[in-house]
């Protein structure tokens, strides 16, 4: 590589919009749950590209799928359809409640489609006055203006002018607040079946069942945002399957493509016709390349041994984090399910989640945060026992450096 073409972290500040603050290291290669940077330094990946790399880096099934499709057909647009899109749609409807699929490119787009469908259904069936969307504080549903408004974190939605209206935010897991507020004007409740960005907060069984019951009582739709929880992340293919509560609309993205951008909105035969021809669309949605890769991902993740393996790996993480905590007294609890886990910092360590992330990076471990007080782990679903042990050892060293 010539000197003038050498890519350094300083180039980010020169050419990129500053809405991110990436780490100094620049990864150039990945395999399984390992990543190497420009200097050849190796890292264990407990971040998974924010719950995206569900099969790790460069999984053979994904590489084969994209290579084969790249030699056939890249793009058509939705003026036509294509084989990978139809095969993927059938596979998705086979593994969950849904009967119809709309393809998009991201979680935000999948959620946008879900919200538009809910509003259109309510207007068509009940009239324009039934338009309220209830969502939950600390929720996260994407960065488009509609989805970021429905998300319950004002810091992400303030400062961009007037917001889409008729959106109400209530406390997560607060049954009384929901019962007191919901009415026949409510068109939909949108929720994560396990809050991700908001701190890895699981719903109580009573709460999630009451949400479903209240939706039925008030003729409102239940939308599950499974962008982060879906595709095996919790040990079920979709998290709702472990909760015993079925939504009317479900959004999926992140790990659906295992690293190739794709999202989908899943719904029923009853609701789908309200997005008739011309009401919604996407130039790249259903792209043959993306769908071919996602097919391979679904084939691997939906295998019983993959889903069972998630639960085995969760136990390894919980055991390892407990041993670390016995030494350093840093965590108040480990939250979450499957391989969507959050280690909540105790009172003495408040506000230091990013300190742990940075220290881990120095030891050759990639982790995430979920707010200022939770260290988040969303590794590959097929990460090896050895890689888990090696990564936890690096986390131990990182925390030791901070004590």
From TrEMBL:
Catalytic activity line of the entry: N(2)-acetyl-L-ornithine + 2-oxoglutarate = N-acetyl-L-glutamate 5-semialdehyde + L-glutamate
Protein name according to UniProt: Acetylornithine aminotransferase
Subunit structure: Homodimer.
Molecular function, one GO term: pyridoxal phosphate binding
Enzyme class of the recorded protein, top EC level: transferase
PANTHER family documented for this protein: AMINOTRANSFERASE CLASS III, SUCCINYLORNITHINE TRANSAMINASE
Binding site for pyridoxal 5'-phosphate: 107-108, 140, 225-228, 283
Cofactor note: Binds 1 pyridoxal phosphate per subunit.
Principal location class: cytoplasm
Subcellular location(s) of the protein: Cytoplasm
Organism of derivation: Vibrio fortis
GO biological process: L-arginine biosynthetic process
Key words, A-Z: Amino-acid biosynthesis, Aminotransferase, Arginine biosynthesis, Cytoplasm, Pyridoxal phosphate, Transferase
SUPFAM superfamilies assigned: PLP-dependent transferases
Residues where N6-(pyridoxal phosphate)lysine is found: 254
